[in-house]
């Protein structure tokens, strides 16, 4: 122990500051800054950290360093976690060390402190995020705010620096005296050189002048601040530094006398798991974060949200190719010196009030190490274990809606330890332990139901995260998202979440995708439900968690249908349902038979929440333990189980500046809290909101104005807003033609001025009110606090849409449109909602009329309005919209009568048509705007004009389809043709009947509508058929009374007769009515994909309807439709509806009919319905019925493919042929199917039953069992098959097959590759003739370095030629993927850098790398002798230069030109283009100019 060591004994609990370092030299600097060293303390046995203990001032400090050789975010998180567990009283953290600076903003030897800038927190993880459309990457990593005590100290220290300078030079001098051995490297920078100091060429000279100008400008600012105060220039700092860097002192090196200004900067630090040593990448990263990055490093983001700390970095290099270690020691020392100085301003009493880090880590420990080196997905958002891009595509196609960000945000808001009472309750334990359970949790508003729901979701995810057989789905209902929470959206989301928890996307989901995706159609609700039933059947258990059912929309029966389908799913598959809601009678009645547990915030939970948040109150509270206890006890008593009220009450204490002020306010809270009834509690909440509004109104005028604008927008917005949208809204100033960034308010200010009523969801970026009741309160009181809200929002939206940037009008490409959306955050909201606000404002202004009279601005606005309704995966979705929309069209669309009136007075006629031939009247009628319809008709609008799209509907048909009765009346009175049929065959009556709009139906019938007008050929419905399919009994009765033909024929394609439609929907009362009216119960199914009534009812599992039809004489064995048809028994078996199956048996159903390529047993086995399988076998089903000739399965093959072990056992026991041959096309034997899915237990069962382990693969895309298991990376299955004698070198199928080794290498499954090589796999087996790869080529293409190494070590031929059709050598494959390390390994192994390209669209290695823009790979290949002018192949080829220009890769183009690339090389004869042609077609102007400068001729 050194001379400075202190000898008094201490315990682990005496240490409150944690100091984390990444490198030993950082630890050395930290230790040297200690005032005293302390003796070591014992560590827990599983703690691998080494701690240095000591003190600075009154703070006891623990220093820990990452293990030698380990860097990155994961290692930092592990060290911090162990430290917090060993020293439970640590409450604040310091992450201190070195980093790379972004020149010229920072210089070597400067210090950077993490600090929020604009929308960014102090630290962002640049390599953590999600892939977005168009190949873009959205970064999601961020660092939570450090403790208040550190932030307060930092603010004071910054002031002291500006006034008196820093003590850093003094501390460095002290270091020289106390530790002479460290003096040269750590305390002195005299001997070090900064590359930016060398200005010996024009580029450096310009850089030097830039640095000088930056420093000069900041000096001027500093002088101005002295006179005007810092606040006057708060928004004038550089983009990268919210608080301008401070020259803290002039450090004098006494050894050499050299003067050097060391500066302290406050701004953004970018953290990641990779070393950045590329200036281009560094600068691009800075640009992506708005030019705000000051420093890059590798550890801080590992502490995100887990370890509340300040990040301090000394700058040791510029993160470029000139990285060296010369400055590291000195940079570590200045960073440590700043940390020491900071601690002098942290009051020990303030630290006492902070929450221990250990408590924070308890909730997040399980998240550590979930990232992988290839993909870092946010595990709170994406539970999927799927690794294949195609699987993700399928799941995203189901629905884009993701509740993960909400789950993350809600869970973060949980005070650690709260809510445990729910998990510990006997009712919850009972619900969790048994299947087929429902736990209903009602609660008063603000009781904490949503946070508790997030606790339940997190608990389920933690408990079952390793079990792919457990399905978990959750829904957070939100009254502001009802447009995205339709019944279709909700069930698709449940299906997606259950499917993504499995090891691979279920086949039924892929089949649904294949059926619709190519045609860009969406599945029907019935299709989604069938697949959901199928997927649920594959799970051993399913948990569905639903929060805030009271916020689920009730329109069109959404909530009722959703609950009905959940309960039906529970009945079929024993799922568990957890639901929360307010105590609304309609909802409570649905759960009468369920277990019920009221949600109330326990007193202990409220107290724990308050204790965790009380540190944000004024400092005098932190110094008075008794007062803190009074606050906790007083609020806990007053809120009586309402968490929200506790949050609001605490916020109301923030501006109370004396103990008596606080005590008086607590007394008010107690008086408000008297009374236990819910109405009294809601009253207390209203009183609290009143007090919050009084506090807002009492602020300084600027703060009050900002708060009122924020509350106005959030309260009145038609959907939730992001922070950037709201910032742009508040920065939009009337009369201005563009947005000024200087008007953008700070997000933190927008929240803070609203007295706790507003919060930001970090993951989603949504800014919202804290609770549904806040919205209700503000909506109810808005006429008092802002009666002109709608007009103000209208003006803002229209002003925004009138900005100069929109004067170019319609964007002619998707890329330009997307860029416009991203560059103008409010564009989408304003375009889609300005008219909704204008309609409510009931007035028109000059700015609105000016906007509507501008053709270009109207077209720009209408493009955003209409394009968002299209499928955004469609490559030209933004172009698939009507053009030539006018201001009058928009007035009609939104129903803005005042604007329509003004425009009609100045424009020629009301019948303007857009390119879809839609008129203003058509839009007004479609959206139900009666006043505008009346105005347009009075102006002479053509009432019978038909649109060219949307089925060529007239205004009457559009209005009838929407159920707009008053508009229908107006149109009929104006002479609308009531029997006009659109091009899709639908009349107004049919449209109204389909929607169930009884009064509209009556009005149309009275006007002479033809009740038996024919249905369209393709999927059309007559009025009665449409009403019956929707279950609209009253409409059915009205139509029958009007003479509707109950047995009218169905449409030829996809049509249904009225009885068939009603039966398929399970509408019993309608079925009874139709039968009583003479409906033919045995009417045949249409020839294409239709059903008889009995088949339709059986397919939906509607038992009562099935019984009714059978009693009415339905033919139980009626033939199925010729395409995709099922007999009634097959349909019921496919859905797993046991009771329906039994009913059909009893009625004489033929069990072995083969129809629709499946027997009943095969479809039941395919769905995993064990009880149905048992019933069918007992009834005599043929267990070995042959599979269909195309894509068919025997029952055993179908069950094995789904991994249904019990069904497999049942079929084997019944005599199923374990070696039945696969179908001729793409089939599998049972063993091959089970191996492909990785179902080990099923594989074992089949092998025991005598399955042929070497059965031949199907001729097309088939696999042996071993090949199938290897392709999926299922190591245990591979081992089992090898032990059973599988041929490790079985040949690949003739078409695009793989040997087992090739398949494993293609997936990067190293352990499987090792196993197969040990078993004697031929490392050089020939690739398949079509799209094949050798094992080495497959691994190289995927970039799997370790697999490549293993294969080379096993003797793989590094120069095996590519197959004749579009193949790649290993080097070409790795180069095309940009896999630099693999390229290096292959070159070192002797790969031919100039191997010939494949004849069809082939590339040499250099051409492949150039095409992908992989600069470092290009450099490596050129250095290895790659021929820069290798000619392009005849068909679709490119020279390296042509390939690079086609992609717009300027740096690669320059590298190739320097290497001698022929700028005028000939294009390929088929689908070729010269370099200049490629650049021109791609719009790459810089590349084209560079080529011209290099002497291109064409």
UniProtKB/TrEMBL annotation:
Keywords: ANK repeat, Membrane, Repeat, Transmembrane, Transmembrane helix. The chain crosses the membrane at residues 211-234. Signal peptide: none annotated. ANK repeats lie at residues 916-948, 951-983, 984-1016, 1019-1051, 1054-1086, 1089-1121, 1124-1156, 1156-1188, 1191-1223, 1226-1258, 1261-1293, 1296-1328, 1331-1363, 1366-1398, 1401-1433, 1436-1468. Pfam families: Ank, Ank_2, NPHP3_N, WHD_GPIID. Residues 437-583 form the NACHT domain. The keyword Transcription regulation does not apply. This is NACHT domain-containing protein. It comes from Podospora pseudopauciseta.
């Amino acid at each position: 122990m050194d001379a400075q060591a202190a000898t008094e004994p201490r315990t682990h609990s005496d240490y409150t500051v944690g100091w984390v370092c990444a490198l030993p030299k950082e630890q050395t600097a930290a230790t040297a800054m200690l005032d005293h060293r302390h003796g070591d303390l014992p560590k827990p046995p599983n703690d691998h950290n080494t701690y240095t203990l000591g003190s600075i001032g009154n703070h006891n400090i623990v220093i820990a360093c990452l293990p030698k050789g380990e860097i990155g975010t994961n290692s930092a998180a592990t060290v911090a976690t162990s430290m917090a567990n060993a020293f439970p009283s640590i409450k604040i953290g310091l992450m201190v060390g070195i980093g790379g600076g972004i020149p010229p903003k920072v210089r070597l030897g400067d210090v950077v402190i993490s600090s929020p800038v604009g929308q960014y927190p102090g630290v962002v993880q640049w390599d953590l995020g999600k892939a977005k459309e168009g190949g873009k990457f959205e970064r999601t990593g961020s660092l939570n705010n450090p403790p208040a005590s550190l932030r307060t100290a930092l603010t004071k220290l910054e002031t002291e620096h500006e006034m008196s300078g820093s003590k850093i030079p003094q501390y460095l001098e002290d270091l020289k005296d106390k530790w002479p051995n460290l003096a040269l490297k750590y305390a002195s920078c005299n001997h070090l050189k900064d590359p930016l100091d060398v200005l010996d060429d024009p580029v450096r000279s310009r850089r030097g002048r830039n640095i000088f100008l930056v420093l000069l400008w900041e000096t001027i600012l500093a002088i101005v601040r002295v006179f005007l105060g810092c606040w006057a220039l708060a928004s004038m700092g550089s983009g990268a530094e919210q608080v301008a860097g401070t020259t803290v002192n002039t450090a004098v090196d006494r050894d050499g006398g050299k003067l050097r200004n060391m500066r302290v900067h406050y701004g953004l630090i970018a953290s990641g798991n990779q070393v950045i040593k590329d200036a281009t990448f560094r600068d691009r990263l800075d640009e992506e974060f708005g030019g705000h990055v000051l420093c890059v490093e590798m550890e801080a983001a590992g502490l995100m949200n887990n370890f509340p700390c300040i990040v301090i970095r000394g700058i040791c290099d510029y993160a470029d190719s000139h990285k060296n270690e010369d400055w590291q020691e000195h940079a570590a020392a200045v960073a440590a010196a700043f940390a020491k100085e900071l601690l002098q301003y942290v009051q020990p009493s303030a630290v006492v009030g902070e929450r221990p880090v250990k408590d924070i880590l308890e909730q997040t420990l399980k998240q550590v190490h979930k990232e992988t080196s290839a993909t870092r997905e946010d595990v709170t958002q994406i539970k999927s274990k799927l690794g294949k891009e195609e699987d993700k595509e399928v799941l995203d196609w189901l629905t884009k809606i993701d509740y993960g960000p909400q789950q993350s945000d809600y869970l973060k808001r949980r005070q650690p330890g709260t809510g445990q009472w729910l998990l510990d309750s006997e009712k919850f334990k009972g619900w969790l332990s048994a299947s087929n359970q429902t736990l209903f949790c009602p609660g008063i508003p603000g009781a904490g139901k949503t946070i508790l729901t997030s606790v339940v979701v997190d608990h389920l995810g933690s408990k079952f995260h390793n079990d792919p057989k457990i399905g978990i789905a959750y829904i957070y209902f939100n009254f502001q998202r009802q447009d995205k929470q339709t019944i279709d959206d909700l069930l698709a989301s449940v299906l997606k979440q259950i499917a993504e928890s499995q090891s691979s996307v279920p086949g039924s989901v892929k089949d649904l995708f294949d059926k619709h995706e190519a045609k860009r159609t969406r599945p029907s609700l019935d299709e989604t439900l069938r697949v959901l039933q199928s997927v649920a059947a594959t799970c051993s258990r399913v948990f569905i968690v639903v929060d805030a059912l009271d916020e689920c929309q009730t329109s069109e029966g959404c909530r009722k249908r959703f609950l009905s389908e959940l309960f039906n799913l529970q009945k079929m598959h024993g799922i568990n349902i957890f639901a929360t809601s307010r105590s609304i009678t309609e909802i409570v009645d649905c759960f009468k038979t369920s277990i019920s547990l009221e949600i109330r915030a326990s007193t202990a939970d409220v107290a724990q929440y308050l204790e965790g948040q009380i540190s944000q109150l004024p400092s005098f509270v932190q110094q008075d333990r008794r007062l803190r206890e009074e606050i906790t006890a007083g609020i806990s008593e007053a809120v009586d189980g309402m968490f929200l009220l506790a949050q609001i009450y605490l916020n109301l204490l923030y501006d109370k500046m004396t103990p008596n002020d606080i005590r008086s306010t607590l007394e008010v809270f107690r008086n408000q809290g008297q009374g236990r009834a819910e109405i009294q509690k809601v009253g207390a909440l209203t009183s609290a909101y009143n007090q919050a509004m009084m506090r807002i109104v009492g602020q300084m005028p600027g703060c009050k104005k900002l708060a009122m604008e924020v509350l106005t927008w959030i309260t009145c917005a038609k959907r939730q807003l992001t922070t950037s949208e709201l910032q742009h809204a508040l920065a939009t100033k009337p009369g201005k033609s563009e947005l000024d960034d200087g008007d953008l308010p700070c997000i933190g200010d927008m929240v803070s001025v609203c007295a706790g009523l507003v919060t930001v969801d970090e993951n989603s970026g949504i800014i919202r009110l804290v609770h549904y009741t806040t919205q209700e309160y503000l909506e109810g009181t808005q006429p008092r606090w802002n009666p002109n809200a709608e007009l103000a929002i209208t003006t803002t939206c229209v002003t925004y849409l009138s900005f100069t940037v929109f004067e170019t009008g319609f964007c002619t490409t998707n890329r330009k449109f997307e860029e416009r959306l991203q560059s103008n955050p409010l564009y989408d909201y304003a375009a889609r909602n300005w008219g909704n606000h204008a309609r409510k404002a009931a007035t028109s202004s000059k700015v609105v009329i000016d906007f509507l009279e501008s053709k270009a601005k109207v077209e720009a606005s209408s493009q955003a309005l209409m394009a968002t309704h299209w499928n955004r995966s469609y490559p030209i979705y933004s172009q698939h919209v009507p053009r030539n929309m006018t201001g009058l069209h928009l007035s009609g669309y939104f129903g803005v009568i005042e604007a329509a009136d003004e425009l009609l007075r100045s424009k020629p006629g009301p019948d303007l048509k857009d390119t879809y031939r839609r008129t203003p009247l058509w839009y007004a009628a479609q959206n139900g705007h009666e006043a505008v319809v009346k105005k347009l008709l009075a102006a002479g609008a053509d009432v019978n004009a038909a649109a060219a799209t949307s089925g060529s509907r007239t205004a009457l048909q559009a209005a009838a389809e929407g159920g707009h009765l008053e508009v229908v009346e107006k149109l009929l009175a104006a002479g609308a043709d009531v029997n006009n049929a659109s091009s899709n065959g639908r009349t107004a009556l049919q449209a109204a009947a389909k929607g169930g709009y009884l009064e509209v139906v009556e009005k149309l019938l009275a006007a002479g509508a033809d009740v038996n007008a024919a249905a369209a050929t393709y999927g059309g419905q007559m009025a009665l058929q449409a009403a019956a399919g929707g279950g609209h009994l009253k409409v059915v009765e009205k139509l029958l009374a009007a003479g509707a033909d109950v047995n009218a024929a169905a449409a030829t394609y996809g049509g249904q007769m009225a009885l068939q439609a009603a039966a398929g929907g399970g509408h019993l009362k309608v079925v009874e009515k139709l039968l009583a009216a003479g409906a033919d119960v045995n009417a045949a199914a249409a020839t294409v994909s239709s059903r008889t009534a009995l088949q339709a009812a059986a397919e939906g599992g509607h038992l009562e309807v099935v019984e009714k039809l059978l009693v009415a004489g339905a033919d139980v064995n009626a033939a199925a439709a010729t395409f995709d048809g099922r007999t009634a028994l097959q349909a019921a078996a496919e859905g797993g509806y046991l009771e329906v199956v039994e009913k059909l048996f009893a009625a004489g159903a033929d069990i072995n009919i083969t129809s629709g390529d499946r027997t009943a047993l095969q479809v039941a086995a395919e769905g995993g319905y064990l009880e149905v399988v048992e019933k069918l076998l007992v009834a005599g089903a043929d267990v070995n019925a042959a599979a269909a000739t195309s894509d068919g399965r025997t029952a055993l093959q179908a069950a094995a493919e789904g991994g249904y072990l019990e069904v497999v056992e049942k079929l084997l026991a019944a005599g199923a042929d374990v070696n039945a041959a696969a179908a001729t096309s793409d089939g599998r034997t049972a063993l091959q199917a089970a191996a492909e899915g990785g179902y080990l237990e099923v594989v074992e069962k089949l092998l025991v039953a005598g399955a042929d382990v070497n059965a031949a693969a199907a001729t097309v895309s088939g696999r042996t069992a071993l090949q199938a298991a290897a392709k999926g990376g299922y190591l245990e299955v591979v081992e089992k098959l090898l032990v059973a004698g599988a041929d490790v070198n079985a040949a690949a199928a003739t078409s695009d097959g793989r040997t087992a080794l090739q398949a494993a290498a293609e997936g990067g499954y190293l352990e499987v590759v090792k196993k197969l090589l040990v078993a004697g796999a031929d490392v050089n087996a020939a690739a398949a003739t079509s799209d094949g790869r050798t094992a080495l080529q497959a691994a190289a293409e995927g970039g799997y370095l370790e697999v490549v190494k293993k294969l080379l070590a096993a003797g793989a031929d590094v120069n095996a030629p590519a197959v004749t059709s579009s193949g790649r050598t290993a080097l070409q494959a790795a180069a095309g993927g940009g896999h630099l390390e693999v390229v290096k390994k292959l070159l070192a192994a002797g790969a031919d850098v100039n191997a010939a390209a494949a004849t069809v669209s082939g590339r040499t290695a250099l051409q492949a790398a150039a095409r992908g823009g992989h600069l470092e790979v290009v450099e490596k290949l050129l250095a290895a002798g790659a021929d820069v002018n290798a000619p392009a192949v005849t068909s679709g080829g490119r020279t390296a230069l042509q390939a690079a220009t086609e992609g717009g890769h300027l740096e690669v183009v320059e590298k190739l030109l320097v290497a001698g690339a022929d700028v005028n090389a000939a294009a390929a004869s088929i689908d070729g283009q010269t370099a200049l042609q490629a650049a021109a077609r791609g719009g790459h102007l810089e590349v084209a100019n560079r080529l011209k400068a290099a002497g291109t001729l064409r």
